Amino acid sequence: DLSLACAESVPQGAKLAIEGTCAVAGEALVELVRERTPDVPRREGDTDADFAKCYARANAWVKAETKARCEGGAFKAEIAVPADLAPGRYVVRAYVTGRDGAALGAREVKVTKPQTAGR
């Protein structure tokens, strides 16, 4: 098991601080991924190449990632949330792999539009 802690929501274009704890020492891969893959519509007039590009975009689950060292049972990481990422539900997931094993954890996070001044 890998336990993750981060904010419940983060605005587009912001940085999301993540803390993880587990019993494995090693490298942590931390990703921000889409919660699910949408259906890919096939439109009249699309070529096979058009469909392939649309399919690849729709199935690109990982939107941002970073790496960190997990030592002493803990790690800290920061993910830059893309400014053009669509608002909605995402998942922060982390994998730690080391000489003595591996650990996996995930946590839901909501990406929101940034607050504007005066609101």
Question: What gyration radius follows from the Cα positions, in whole Å?
Answer: 17 Å
Shape: flat
Low-confidence stretches: none
For the biggest sheet, the summary is: 5 strands, mixed
Number of helices: 1
Structural class: mainly beta
The span between the termini is: 41 Å
Strand content: over 45%
Give the total of beta strands. Answer: 8
**Which sequence of strands runs across the widest sheet?**
2-8-7-4-5
Helix content: under 10%
Average pLDDT over all residues: 88
Kindly summarize this structure in a few lines.
This protein has 119 residues and is mainly beta.
Features:
five-stranded mixed sheet, flat, 119 residues, three-stranded antiparallel sheet, mainly beta
Structure commentary:
The radius of gyration is 17 Å and the shape is flat. The chain has one helix and eight strands; from the N terminus they run ββββαββββ. The chain has one helix at 48-58; strands at residues 2-6, 9-11, 15-22, 26-34, 62-70, 74-80, 88-98, 101-112. The mean pLDDT is 88. Strands 2-8-7-4-5 form a five-stranded mixed sheet, with no helix packed on it. A hairpin with a 2-residue loop joins strand 7 (88-98) and strand 8.
